[in-house]
Design brief:
Layout: H1 2-46, E1 52-71, E2 81-84, E3 92-97, E4 103-110, E5 120-123, E6 133-148, E7 154-155, E8 159-163, E9 166-170, E10 182-183, E11 188-194, E12 203-208, E13 211-216
Antiparallel strand pairs: 1-6, 2-3, 2-5, 3-4, 6-11, 7-10, 8-9, 8-12, 12-13
Amino acid sequence: MKSDMGASVGVGGLIIGISMLVVFSMAYQAISLQIDSGVDRIEEADEPAPTFTIDDAVIYTGAMVDVTIVSGGAGYSSGGTIEASSGTGGFSATYTIDGLGAITSVVITSHGNYSSLPTLVVNGGGTPTSTASLTAVRGNVLYANITNTGSTTIAHDDVWMFLDGQDPTLFSTVYNPPLTDLWFSGETLFLDWFDTGLPGDERITMTVGQTTVGHSLW
């Protein structure tokens, strides 16, 4: 009987000991989380808020945002350009051809701005045996220069843009830099955002964290 009681006491003590270890472990984890959270808050408090400016911004509501290749033609040579034969809006584009000299793709180099849809022609493309048929697509293009005036580096994914306070758009989805997705201190970025909003848009707003900056669209 004494042996059984001793065993019971031993088991009970072991259970209590394990329970105490569990309690101590949970308390340690809770304290560690509080310390980590406190350190994070201190680091966030020490980090200066981002600051930036929208140096200028304009929206063209008659810009050419795409070119539809109705027929690529034949016999074209590379090195030519596609331009508007009507209007003075400033549209221009380059193109690529296949082995038969047919235009297969178009890259817009200047969207221009037109009150009506211009007629497109190929200049400097050799002597085609069949003329290409190209149709311009009108839309909106927003141009803006923005400068990171603060001391912190801003990730493009942290920048939100609004037109007239609506339709939030991530900056990273409309700005495609060649090398990085970071906006460094003192750096000015040029935004070429096409097919945006409605012709009545009058203001662009950009937000990073608690910082919001707006600019009229002239």
